[in-house]
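User: Teach me something about this protein's shape.
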Amino acid sequence: MHAGGQAGQKETAAQLAGLVSLMRSESADDHLGGRAMLNALSTAMFALVLRLASETEDAPRGLLALAGHPRLAPAVAALFNEPARAWSLPDLARLCNMSRATLARQFQEKLGRSASDLLTDIRMMLAANELKRSSLSTGTVAEAVGYQSEAAFQRAFKGHMGVTPAQWRKQQEPSSQDVFSKLAVSGSANPTRARGDD
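Assistant: First, the predicted structure itself:
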């Protein structure tokens, strides 16, 4: 790392330390508007942490690295905002005003994975959440997250999660023992109900 980079890193670290000190002060004292100040300062702290991470010699990998890379931001936002869309590498490269090869290389360098791997991660997370909280059919969930074939979705889900969508859904259901223990706890919390004196 060159001297200018070290100076920038030290300056950012000093700003971050000052900000943390101010946040401690605001949280310790009960000043008018203190919570609003803490909310705003938290946003500033996040930005400074990203800046500090980008200034280190060993740049971070993963979503943090992608978040700190403004040229990739349009592709990342598109993948998160429209995961069901059939995104292609040329589509994403066009959004970022870069060649397909540059986009692919940047994703690999920053994330350690391809854009299609990130899209699959997003789709599987959304599918797992939908399977957990709703009674929609597997085919409907598959379509909602961008798969035209239920069989392709099931293969992708099992490859990603290690279990089929049906097995995932079953694992997320509370067991009958859990349900009965919750009923017993809620019943004992209301002694009138437990005795039947309604």
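Now, about its shape. The chain has a mean pLDDT of 81. The radius of gyration is 24 Å. If you'd like, I can walk through any region in more detail.
User: That's plenty for now, thanks!
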